[in-house]
Please model this.
Amino acid sequence: MPELPEVTAIADYVDGRAAGLPIRRIDVASLSVLKTADPPITALAGRTVERVWRIGKYLVFTTVPGPGAAPEADGEIHLVIHLSRAGWLRWSQNLSQTPPRPGGKGPIALRVHCGLPGEGFDVTEAGTQKRLAVWVARTAAGTDHIPDVDKIASLGPDALALSEPEFAATISAATGRIKNVLTDQRVIAGIGNAYSDEILHTAKMSPFASVKTLSDTALADLYSVMRSVLLDAIARLEGQEVATMKSEKRSGLQVHGRTGMPCPVCGDTVREVSFADRSFQYCPTCQTGGRILADRRMSRLLK
Model:
């Protein structure tokens, strides 16, 4: 799943290419991705992309009326995209002018033509679990709030916007295991499964540690590590083509997705805890004092 570093990098990449360009048309290949109907997605045609930015793990394309628009034309209208677990964006200078077939089996969910013919991007989703979501929403009058996207309204503070005292207060007010708290977008926005694994590994903290047991020193260390891991990932992705960002992300991970491989810090075997539709990885030596965490799925298989 694209998380804060990847969404930041995608937003910067596309902003550098699309900002100031007119949207000529939008082709919808998968109607199920559209989560709003007013304004319709067709309302974006003829508007200009003002900027591309990020809220949590959401991509936001802010558009304004194009040249020659009527005085009563809507102000800012946003195209908001959540790439979910298997979504991605592909920028092209040679975008097909033939609309993708609606309901087809291909990965394309949405095609946005902007700028000159051939310029624009596809929003794609791999696999059979279709969770990619798209909203078209206005800005609330006199604010920067996007009220029509309820999931954005429920987001906690951005991971990189928190000061150390704010981070400590936010974590301390939560309950449960630190792994779950870090990935709860209502608590802190932007961190997902992969980077929470990396943060906890670097901080030498068990994913199952209760937030109520964390000392002030542990919270301060965790805050420092969180910023370091996220900012280092953003730096690695800076200047990358969107097409290479996935592999660049994988190359920088120390434990996530490395089950059975040696920990690059201590050499112990990276272990996994599996759930119904996801898993996380950790190093026993670095994080749990050598203890192997219970994996209910594996326990059932061994019976």
Remarks:
- The chain has two domains: 4-153, 164-302.
- Residues 284 and 290 are 4 Å apart (CA to CA).
- The mean pLDDT is 92.
- The two ends are 32 Å apart (CA to CA).
